[in-house]
Amino acid sequence: MNKVILLLIIANVLVSYKGFKDVVFFDRYKFQIKKIINGEKLRMLTSGFLHADWMHLGFNMYAFYLFGKVVLVNFGTTYFLFIYIGSLLAGSVYTLYQHKKDYYYSAVGASGAVSGIVFSAIILYPNMTLIMFPIPLPLPGYVFGVGYLLYSIYGMKNQVGNIGHSAHLGGAIGGYVLTILLKPSVIENNTIMIGVIGVIIVSLFLFSGKLKIKQ
User: Fold this and answer.
1) Residue 40: what are its φ and ψ, rounded to 5°?
2) In a 3-state reduction of DSSP, which class is residue 140?
3) In whole angstroms, how large is the CA radius of gyration of the chain?
4) How many helices (H) and strands (E) does the chain have?
5) Of 6-15, 90-99, 160-169, where does the model show the most confidence?
6) Contact call for residues 8 and 64 (beta carbons, < 8 A)
7) How far is residue 16 from each of residues 5, 130, 167, measured CA to CA in Å?
8) pTM of the model
9) What's the CA gap between 17 and 32, in Å, rounded?
10) Among 108, 94, 95, CA closest to 28
């Protein structure tokens, strides 16, 4: 395992473990709308290293391990970290935008960062084979990517499960945009897929007024 990926996993494990054991620490650094609006912007970063429980942490780190090495090999350490942190913050910013009137909304997890890494890998290798549970069938990466976006939009609108769908969606958008900016050649190589995803993202913002989240 690459040292950068290992260090990020260790950071997530250590910070999350501290949060499991220390409620005050957890509350001080988790994502919470009211606190962030009142000036505690650091929470938008620190919340990405906290997790709700070991299963939440395990799923995120396993996905990060699987897809992280693909992105790292293509971009190198500096750009890889830029995509990881940029996607984390994109997830936090989009969550803040979607829940800005829900002052007591809170969230934790590296889902935004991991979603960005997953989407970056899909854009680099759109024909990679993936499985999107609960459908036990292998799917091309580009099908997975489109399905992931659409499900995240649906889940965010309908508040499906105890999941931060807005962070997933914001992180995925961050990974999409940053990968294209850092490696424009992917547009020529995968024009149709990138165009379809781009249309979904643009439509999401154009019609965001009609996307009312159920409380």
Assistant:
1) -85, 65
2) strand
3) 17
4) 10, 4
5) 6-15
6) yes
7) 16, 28, 18
8) 0.86
9) 19
10) 108
Interval 179-208: pLDDT, tens = 999 999 988 878 887 888 888 777 776 665
Residue type, 211: L
Amino acid (1-letter code) at residue 98: Q
Q: Give the pair of three-digit tokens for residue 116.
A: 């960005």
Classify burial at 114, counting beta carbons within 10 Å of its beta carbon; exposed 0-12, middle 13-18, buried 19 or more: buried
The tokens describing 75, both together, are 């971009």
The amino acid sitting at 144 is F
Q: Contact, 64 vs 9, CB < 8 A?
A: yes
User: How far is it, in rounded angstroms, from Cα 148 to Cα 133?
Assistant: 11
* Alpha helix ranges (H) inside 3-140: 3-21, 23-29, 33-37, 43-46, 54-98, 111-124
Contact 172/119 with Cβ under 8 angstroms? yes
| Helix then strand then coil, % of the chain, to nearest 5 | 75, 5, 20
